[in-house]
Every structure is written in structure tokens, then in C-alpha cells.
Amino acid sequence: MDKPKVVLGVSGGIAAYKACELLRRLTESGHDVRVVPTASALHFVGAATWSALSGHPVSTEVWTDVHEVPHVRIGQHADLVVVAPATADMLAKAAHGLADDLLTNTLLTARCPVVFAPAMHTEMWEHPATQENVATLRRRGAVVIEPAVGRLTGADTGKGRLPDPDQIFEICRRMLARGAGARPDLAGRHVVVSAGGTREPLDPVRYLGNRSSGKQGYALARTAAARGARVTLIEANTGLPDPAGVDVVHVGTAVQLREAVLKAAADADAVVMAAAVADFRPAAYAEGKIKKKDGQEPAPVALVRNPDILAEISAERARPEQVVVGFAAETDDVLAHGRDKLRRKGCDLLVVNEVGERKTFGSEENEAVVLAADGVETPVPYGPKEALAETVWDLVAGRLTTTAGGDSDKSG
């Protein structure tokens, strides 16, 4: 079989050298990669490097080998185009359809999925012009990965760092795995995912918590980003590294999680509550460490109920067409308890799985049944958590498409 054809566009930022690692990952995993740099990019990494690593000639001009019509052919034959790094200038050109070199011509002629991995200073990323350009590209179906937070050029630190090349590669791999010509079905959508387990403090050193690792929530976030969504991940006590292309909000308690979810859900198309939220918290917080007293039993710990976030966002949706997904971790009578919870919470989908000390928690695999409010049940066999994530987003995307279609019929 022919190798999948990937175009790696490189624009003129200091992070261009990191694209060499992305190129290595793509070629070593069996992809045929054509590097198309801008003239500015060659100030950072020379054409000889790109040619040697890719095995293809490198040019920035539409006039090189003009008889082969490269400004059209490269984009036409690609299975995926990824631009890393994508500077503010490149995002602006792509959004406005400018075509003044080989890379921008390629972007105009490509009919395959396109990924942009931005890298620039924080002020440039946050500028309204850049944000408008990003929004335009996302509306058209391009995947624009959220930049990472970290050290930038010089002494500056902030949001604008190129995501780790391994993580960009994983997004590309997932997009290619969906099949040639498959469009990112969550492009232009904003989704909110919660992950991890809340901790309810008893005193400065103790808390009530649970065993949730957050790995399923992170798989949901990574998969949604690969399918084109703008992702807000609200994580509680996972200790996991922030996934590429995702805005991450760190919280600790159920009350903090509720506040973050309600804020993020205000403009979200879908909310997936994968976090294990504590049902109760201590009624009182001890300012100092609770001491053990010889010969005395500890005083009982009074508990109060935490807010029911899933029921709240299901009942009071920020927008009528918003899709809400819950998770139910059960230890017995799994489906019976799941069906009852789906009815009580009022969400659209409920992912039900059996948990225990040696089941699911901390594992890279999962097994579940996705229950829908309309009575449809979708079993997901034991396998990687990414597989369950794909199924969840398949079901969410189907509902978003149906809702959008209904709205357009009413207006037309």
C-alpha cells in the first residue's frame, strides 16, 4: 500500500527546529513526508536538513520545477497537512486566503485535513486579530492546536510555546487513522471535559478523596482535540502532564470544579463530566492538623453534600442544543444503577463502567456501556481508553450534527 502522504509546513519561528523531531516521528512511523518551509523558516533550519530528513527536495517557491505545477499538486495529493510551527503571520495568511509562496498555495489547494500548531509570543497569540484568524480557520474545519504554556524566546514565559512534537504527532496519527479524506467532525466546536478526582480537605494535611487517575478524561480531551474541537480540560488532582492543544484549568475540590465547569460551559457545545466528584465534604475544616489523643477515639466527622454538578448543568443548560455526558462508576448492578442515574441526572449520555480496586482506576484500558436518554445502549468492549473516547465523541458529534441540521431547517 502507498504510504500516507503528509505535508509538513514550517513557518518562520524559532520553534522551527522542533519540527525536525516531528518530521522524524512521521517518517519513522511509515509516512511519506514532504516538507514545505517558508523563506523565513530557512533562516532557522536550512533546506539541506529538511531534504535529508524527508528524502524529498525542498523549495519555498512556486517557480521551482514549475512544469510539475507544485503549487497545486502538493496539496491535491496530501492526506494531511500540518503546519508546525504556525506563526501569527502564517495564521493570518491562511485565514485570508493569501498565496504568496509554495506553502500558502498548498494550503489553498489541500482538500485533506489541515492542522496548525501555533508558536508565538503570548501577546501575539492573545491579540484580537490572531484570535479572529484562529476562529475563522476553525469554522472552516481546520484543527488549530492550542499552544502550550512555558518558556518562550528570550526570558519571556507564557502561552505561545509550540506543543511537544510527540503530542503533535499523536494528533496527526489520530486524524490519519480516521481515514483518508475524513474531516474533523468537531471542528469549530467548543467542548468541556472534566477529569480526575476531587479532594475535600479535612485539615491542612488530610482529605477525603477517591482513586480516579484522570486518564479517561485526558483521553477524551486528546481525542476531541484531534477531531478539531477547542477543548477546555478541567482537571482535579491528576498529576498528569497537560495534553497538547488543550486549555487546562486546575482545581482541587468539588466546589472549585463546579465553578470552573459552569464558567467554561457558558459557550460550550458539549460538556463531558468524566471526573469523579466527591458526593460529600467535611462540614468543618480544621485550621490545624487534627491530633491523635491517647486513649481517646477520634471524633466523628460530620459530612455535608457537595453540589450535583452533572444534574445542574443538565437541567440548566447554557444553550438549548448543548450535549451533556456523564460518567457512572459502579461496583454492582452496573446497568441498573446506570439507567437510574441517567434518569435522575437528566443528561443526554451516561458512560457506565464497573470499577474496583483492580478495575479501571489507573489502568490504560476501560470497558463500558454508553446509555442514551432515548434508550439506545452502546457497548464498548475492553480496550484502550482512547477507543472509548472515540465512541463517546462519535455519539456526541451525531447529536450535534442532528441539532444543527434541525436548526437550519427551521431557519430555512
TrEMBL record:
Residues 1-190 are annotated as: Phosphopantothenoylcysteine decarboxylase. CTP binds at D279, K289, P307, D308, I309, L310, F327, K341, K345. It catalyses: N-[(R)-4-phosphopantothenoyl]-L-cysteine + H(+) = (R)-4'-phosphopantetheine + CO2; (R)-4'-phosphopantothenate + L-cysteine + CTP = N-[(R)-4-phosphopantothenoyl]-L-cysteine + CMP + diphosphate + H(+). Pathway: Cofactor biosynthesis; coenzyme A biosynthesis; CoA from (R)-pantothenate: step 3/5; Cofactor biosynthesis; coenzyme A biosynthesis; CoA from (R)-pantothenate: step 2/5. Residues 191-412 are annotated as: Phosphopantothenate--cysteine ligase. GO terms for cellular component: phosphopantothenoylcysteine decarboxylase complex. Residues 186-397 form the DNA/pantothenate metabolism flavoprotein C-terminal domain. Residues 5-170 form the Flavoprotein domain. One of its GO terms (biological process) is pantothenate catabolic process. Its EC number is 4.1.1.36, 6.3.2.5. Keywords: Decarboxylase, Flavoprotein, FMN, Ligase, Lyase, Magnesium, Metal-binding, Multifunctional enzyme. In the N-terminal section; belongs to the HFCD (homo-oligomeric flavin containing Cys decarboxylase) superfamily. Catalyzes two sequential steps in the biosynthesis of coenzyme A. In the first step cysteine is conjugated to 4'-phosphopantothenate to form 4-phosphopantothenoylcysteine. In the second step the latter compound is decarboxylated to form 4'-phosphopantotheine. Catalyzes two steps in the biosynthesis of coenzyme A. In the first step cysteine is conjugated to 4'-phosphopantothenate to form 4-phosphopantothenoylcysteine, in the latter compound is decarboxylated to form 4'-phosphopantotheine. This is Coenzyme A biosynthesis bifunctional protein CoaBC. It comes from Streptomyces lavendofoliae.
